[in-house]
């Protein structure tokens, strides 16, 4: 990754008065870091602070932490949309505590332990580009690796894939073919996401699933096999049941290949 792509980020934030001056780390996240961005892509940054940054321009996103909000600001600079989130270091500790090994050992039930805002934070850290505070980033990456975060995400995705697959078969038995097709497709998306998490590719919006698949190159499924289902290329409108059953069986095969530790 060419670091010059992000050389303007810190000066821009300073010019706009959007750095507290006592931040512990600043890093770029999202598609821009991966080199997947396009003309309409946002530039997403995270600023980690020891104390809350006070600025009347900031908006707040509710999180189940203490304090119960993450501050955020969006603005346009030279024709590009920027979004900056301000996390407290203590909030990051709290998120990691939710997915600690001790927490997993006490309760292995599948379910949403993290809200999307929290899960996205940890998932994006794995592929961030530090602008400052590289030691903070490295320490947090070690903590994520040692935690049960990957296990939690895998457990939830596999549970969702299984539920959607069962729903698809139930709808198929009831003769609701359109709904069965959509449920099978959803099940496949969850199963593939679980497979990719095992290769370190955490879920992003579905629009990036193909790119994540190409990066991970998972052995149990070729890109061509994945793409045939994702694009429904083999779907026959005259026999939707055959496609639904094929996809549900494939979801089960994928689940067998995913190792949960």
UniProtKB/TrEMBL annotation:
Highest rank taxon of the organism: Bacteria
Domain Polymerase nucleotidyl transferase: 24-80
Residue intervals passing through the bilayer: none
Keywords: Transferase
Gene Ontology molecular function: any one: nucleotidyltransferase activity
Record flagged with keyword Transferase: yes
Protein name as catalogued: Nucleotidyltransferase-like protein
Species of origin: Actinoallomurus bryophytorum
Organism lineage: Bacteria, Bacillati, Actinomycetota, Actinomycetes, Streptosporangiales
């Amino acid at each position: 990754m060419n670091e010059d792509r992000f050389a303007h980020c810190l000066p821009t934030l300073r010019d706009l008065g959007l750095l507290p001056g006592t931040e512990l780390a600043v890093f770029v996240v999202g598609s821009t870091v991966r080199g997947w961005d396009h003309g309409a892509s946002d530039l997403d940054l995270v600023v980690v602070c020891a104390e809350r940054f006070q600025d009347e321009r900031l908006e707040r996103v509710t999180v189940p932490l203490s304090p119960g909000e993450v501050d955020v600001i969006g603005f346009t600079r030279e024709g590009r949309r920027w979004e900056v989130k301000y996390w407290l270091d203590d909030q990051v500790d709290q998120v990691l505590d939710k997915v600690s090994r001790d927490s997993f050992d006490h309760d292995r039930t599948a379910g949403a332990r993290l809200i999307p805002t929290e899960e996205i934070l940890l998932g994006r850290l794995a592929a961030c580009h530090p602008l400052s505070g590289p030691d903070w980033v490295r320490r947090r990456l070690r903590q994520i690796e040692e935690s049960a975060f990957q296990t939690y995400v895998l457990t939830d995705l596999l549970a969702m894939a299984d539920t959607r697959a069962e729903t698809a078969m139930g709808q198929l038995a009831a003769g609701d073919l359109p709904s069965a097709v959509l449920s099978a497709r959803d099940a496949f998306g969850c199963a593939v996401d679980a497979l990719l998490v095992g290769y370190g590719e955490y879920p992003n919006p579905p629009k990036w699933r193909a790119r994540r698949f190409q990066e991970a190159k998972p052995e149990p499924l070729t890109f061509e096999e994945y793409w045939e289902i994702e694009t429904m290329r083999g779907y026959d409108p005259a026999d939707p049941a055959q496609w639904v059953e094929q996809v549900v069986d494939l979801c089960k095969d994928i689940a067998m290949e995913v190792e949960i530790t």
